[in-house]
Amino acid sequence: MKIIIINGPNLNLLGQREPEVYGSLSFDIFFNGLKRKYTTVELHYFQSNIEGEIIDKLQEVGFSYDGIILNAAAYTHTSIGIGDAVKAITTPVIEVHISNTFARETFRHQSFISPNAKGIIIGFGLKSYELALQSFL
Q1: Which CATH number covers residue 86?
Q2: Where are the membrane-spanning stretches (predicted)?
């Protein structure tokens, strides 16, 4: 099984950025732990702060991978383009958020990804990614 995690803007700062919201563990350390735990899954990772690069990556993997775990971060609430890319591909997408977006600012309550996602996992910290991975297994 071939799964990719795609992270959006500012998630490269996990472990440093707002630890009270996002925790103190870097994503690289977390991702390496996932790879060690799920040895039968071919796990890949991509992060970009640039909307177009996220769209390009979705189009690149969206017809050949078994699953995509997508945390588009702030682009979730602003990017019709990323929502359209998720709709255009055949690989199922699980939308993930580390924090409970519904407990935050009102603008974070809307997602342009959700209508085209297979499912949504919100608010379980980094464990949200593992829950998404388990949903594909």
Answers
A1: 3.40.50.9100
A2: none
Question: Do the strands 67-71 and 119-122 form a parallel or antiparallel pair, or are they unpaired?
Answer: unpaired
Region of residue 81 (left: phi > 0; alpha: psi -120 to 50; beta: else) = alpha
**pLDDT, tens only, 17-36:** 777 777 778 899 999 999 99
Number of domains in the chain: 1
Domain span at 80? 2-136
Coil, strand, or helix at residue 27? helix
Structure token digits, residue 76: 């979730």
| Interatomic CA distance for residues 80 and 114, integer angstroms | 11
Asked whether residue 77 is marked as a ligand-binding residue, the answer is yes
Q: Is 22 known to be catalytic? A: yes
Which range (26-35, 42-51, 104-113, 116-125) has the least confidence? 104-113
Choosing from 45, 65, 97, 129, the catalytic residue is 97
Q: Active-site residue among 22, 65, 75, 129? A: 22
Listed ranges 59-68, 72-81, 94-103; the one with the highest mean pLDDT: 59-68
Which amino acid is residue 12, in one-letter code?
Answer: N
Tokens standing for residue 27: 């994503």
